Amino acid sequence: MNMIDEQLMKNLGLEALSPEEKAAIVEQFADVLFQAVLVRGMELLSEDKKDLLEEELKKDPDAGQDVFMDFFMANIPDFQSVIDDEMKRVKDRIDSVIGKPTA
């Protein structure tokens, strides 16, 4: 696990979990976060940009998340703030479901 993953575990109050459990949670969090970023990115693209993205995806339909992220970074101003906002929103949602950890 990297430092960000460890911070996530601490923020969610899950640092006592086994390494396998932590890895599963981080993977699930990453999937949910990507879906949220994908939806938000598509909302922010103009129709012309969506057409360009579609062309990129046709070149390599199996390219995966990198195509989306690279395209969004290149075509949406300050896209990093979108990622940050969605990360906070997803984390807040998780906190509301499992409850805030006690200090």
Plain-language structure description:
Helix 3 runs antiparallel to helix 4 (65-75). It is built from 5 helices and no strands. It has one domain. The model has no long low-confidence stretch (mean pLDDT 83). With 103 residues, it is mainly α. The longest helix has 26 residues, at 19-44.
Key features?
103 residues, mainly alpha, 77% helix
Number of helices: 5
Q: In terms of per-residue confidence, which ranges show pLDDT below 50 for 5 or more consecutive residues?
A: none
Q: What is the SS-derived class?
A: mainly alpha
Give the percentage of residues in beta strands. under 5%
Total beta strands: 0
Order of H and E elements: HHHHH
Largest sheet: none
Shape: elongated
Whole-number mean pLDDT: 83
Radius of gyration over alpha carbons?
A: 16 Å
Count of the separate structural domains = 1
Topology diagram in text:
Elements (H helix, E strand, L loop, with lengths): L2 H9 L7 H26 L2 H13 L5 H11 L3 H20 L5
Helix pairs in contact: 2-5, 3-4
Summarize the structure.
With 103 residues, the chain is mostly helical. It has helices at 3-11, 19-44, 47-59, 65-75, 79-98.
